[in-house]
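Follow-up to my earlier ticket, as requested here are the two runs.
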Amino acid sequence: YGHSNQLRQARAMGDYLIVGVHTDEEIAKHKGPPVFTQEERYKMVQAIKWVDEIAPGAPYVTTLETLDKYNCDFCVHGDDITLTIDGKDTYEEVKTAGRYRECKRTQGVSTTDLVGRMLLMTKAHHSNIDEDLDYRKHTDNFGKGPKGHSPWTGVSQFLQTSQKIIQFASGKEPQPGDTIIYVAGAFDLFHIGHVDFLEKVHQLAERPYIIAGLHFDQEVNRYKGKNYPIMNIHERTLSVLACRYVSEVVIGAPYAVTADLLDHFRVTLVCHGMTEVVPDKDGSDPYEEPKRRSIFQLVDSGSNLTTDLIVQRIIKNRLEFEARNQKKEAKELAVLEAMKRLEEK
């Protein structure tokens, strides 16, 4: 949702947003192993509602040639620093030409922090749990090289505000003639498996209005166990709202899809993917009511990617990721040092 927020801000600066997505090769060369494949990333970015078009295989260093190729007036990046493998600012050329704009980086989230949460297996990142010591140690050391702490890669607590939700929400009410479809789940680490599922659900009606029910952290932890969900309820809300197929989100939806919920939202169809449905606390089927009304449908997303698989990819590459994070840190700190020296001069 940090990336989505950047795209939202960029889109507000102009009329048409083209997002350049790097290949796996480029990322491996400059940053370390990517978590998702380029095909997965192309599809994910395309599914974000502020994106008009993607430019696959965009070069890591943004040049004027690239901007001209796509008829872009300017390019936008967050106010953190991106450096090439040899430590140069990747936006130098477009900055010099006056075709660069900056947007604010989203506080309290980074890919690096999410990777840390997956590797730690604690539950301290849930929205209502007293922090445990391991996670606090992780956040304290996070982004701390031997020489200090980088403000870009470090962890700061994500604080949800109503303003942020308003910025992400579509604000559209269902219209007469819309098919109101309800889906529910954790939607943790919002990924291509979720996108494929929501896209399939979206295709079920001519005028779909999709409401996604997100379960609270404790509920997800009850049926998923371990340190799930990796992202807390506030973070998951923004991630799902950024998807172009979703019209509305229920924050902290009940696990059982009740008659009250169906009547309240005037739901005509309830969909679930091919993943296992864990019984409710009392052993009952959470989809009993929609099944009784004959409005329940299983939808095959055609994707086998799950949150578990992403975590497995991370753990498999754990050492490479840890090395990558430390390198990124060191580069950022070196830039900070150089900036400080310039100021002193």
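Run two:
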Amino acid sequence: LSGLDPAQPYFQGTPTEVRLDKSDADFVDIIHTDSAPTIPNLGFGIRPAIGHIDFYPNGGEEMPGCAKNPVSQIVDLDGIWEGTRDFVACNHLRSYKYYSDSIIYPDGFLGYPCASYDLFQSGNCFPCPEEGCPNMGHYADKFKDKIKKNFLKFYLNTGEARDFPLWRYKVTVTLSGKSKVKGYVNVALYGTGGNTKQYQITKGTLKPDNTYTAYIDANVNVGEVTKVKFLWNNNWINPTLPKLGAATITVEVGQNR
């Protein structure tokens, strides 16, 4: 049984006979997309973990792309009716959009086991454990024999619009050069499965021999990494023409470590 943002009003906090619960099937997976409190946030979805595995994409409360201005949302690519529904219940309806995208992307929507979304965002729950990570949505049941304890919570990020899946990488850059400068460092990944856009690894004071780490959620599964593109910029003309390089760049893939 897959619960697509099961309802919060009249169901949250009720006995298991009343609401969806993991006792309802051999395997129950839940996608939480609108679990902010109903009052005052108008969250329609249930907050607690109630399945064998519970996914909280983007933290489970506010979905990216749902804060668009009302006009652009109602005049939606999928038509006025779809756009109006999205305006009224965008976060709630993301659950079925993620699910439908998950059918097309069997390797997408990896959920990382974590105690909270903040810990996930800061990289504490990266990479996947040895038994791997489940895929949120249609292929979640591939994970059912790997469940070792009650109420597993999984976190991940998604895109703002279709196609929704993102793939998480840890990128670590050690700089080389003669003097520190102000600016930013960008990295793009190239691989057998495709290439990513540039992602900012750090900005501010850039010091040679220092190491900078960032977690990027790429909109493509690059497969085996074949090349990494490193760019830095100091945003203004500097008469001393400073030079910076990358002594080393390490890329860690969340899925297979």
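The only thing I checked on run two: Residues 1-165 form a domain with the Rossmann fold fold (CATH 3.40.50.1820). Let me know what else you need.
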